[in-house]
């Protein structure tokens, strides 16, 4: 297995965001074959996932496979074998965490760039795990964020994330005592938690707020309230996937291709929510970037 360091570099985020935009504009994403993810659960509650994708344009077949188990420490283990469609040869096997981290930061950059106010300067983050850092990287790649507020149910984790943000040298970062405090008046909000219930984010979100909602969503659970989803313009990776996995409220959402290639001059003046469920097309594009040395 190659590239086991799961830290994401800013240059990689910018590069993959560019590849995503290019694939959306060219129609390469539309031409991919991407079945809905398959999940098998055993009697212990351990889940086994498979997320394949094939791209004739990029000449790659991938299949992210993962286990989600219960226990101390990391509960998700994943790998992504990458094959050349021209020969069927295995090019490499990438660490699934690296692929996921980079993909999440890059798609956040793409969506935030289209939806957030051009002068957005305040970012509120709820959650302080690995994905919270990816949210900071993605938003920072496209906006001059000056102030970051972080809330976590574990204050030490929030302080560690703030210290990392401060060390990056581009923004002030503050630990907040509540989700409402972290998000009040924020130009951009990122939620990256495992909550199955709507988070108590601020009621006074500005009209122009953009929310990147990155936690696991199902038809019965989500990080943000149904009221916020109903009042905002929703963005999803794929309408088919979002409706199947997160509910029919997403059936009128903009998918990434419509968002990136369409004309939406009013987006920055109304609430927008990126209700992310994940999509293997983006994993494949990320793998195309990471697997370049092996082609």
TrEMBL record:
This is Ornithine cyclodeaminase. It comes from the Bacteria. Gene3D superfamilies: NAD(P)-binding Rossmann-like Domain, ornithine cyclodeaminase, domain 1. Signal peptide: none annotated. One of its GO terms (cellular component) is cytoplasm. SUPFAM superfamilies: NAD(P)-binding Rossmann-fold domains. Pfam families: OCD_Mu_crystall (PF02423). One of its GO terms (molecular function) is hormone binding.
């Amino acid at each position: 297995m190659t590239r086991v360091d799961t830290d994401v570099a800013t240059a990689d985020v910018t590069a993959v965001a560019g590849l995503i935009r290019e694939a959306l504009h060219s129609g390469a994403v539309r031409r991919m074959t991407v079945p809905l993810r398959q999940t098998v659960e055993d009697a212990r509650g351990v889940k086994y996932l498979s997320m394949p994708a094939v791209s004739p344009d990029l000449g790659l077949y991938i299949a992210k496979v993962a286990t989600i188990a219960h226990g101390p420490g990391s509960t998700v283990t994943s790998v992504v074998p990458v094959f050349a469609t021209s020969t069927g040869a295995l090019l490499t096997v990438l660490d699934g965490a690296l692929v996921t981290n980079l993909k999440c930061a890059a798609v956040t950059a793409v969506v935030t760039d289209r939806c957030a106010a051009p002068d957005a300067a305040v970012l509120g983050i709820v959650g302080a795990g690995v994905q919270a850092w990816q949210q900071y990287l993605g938003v920072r790649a496209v906006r001059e964020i000056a102030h970051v507020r972080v809330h976590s149910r574990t204050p030490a984790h929030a302080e560690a994330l703030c210290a990392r943000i401060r060390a990056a040298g581009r923004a002030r970062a503050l630990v907040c005592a509540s989700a409402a405090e972290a998000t009040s008046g924020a130009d951009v909000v990122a939620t990256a938690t495992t909550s199955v219930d709507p988070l108590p984010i601020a009621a006074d979100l500005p009209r122009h707020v953009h929310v990147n909602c990155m936690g696991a969503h199902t038809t019965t659970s989500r990080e943000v309230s149904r009221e916020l989803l109903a009042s905002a313009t929703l963005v999803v990776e794929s309408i088919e996937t979002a409706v199947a996995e997160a509910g029919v409220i997403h059936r009128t959402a903009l998918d990434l291709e419509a968002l990136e290639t369409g004309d939406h001059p009013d987006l920055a003046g109304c609430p927008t929510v990126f209700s992310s469920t994940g999509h293997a097309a983006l994993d494949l594009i990320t793998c195309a970037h990471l697997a370049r040395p092996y082609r």
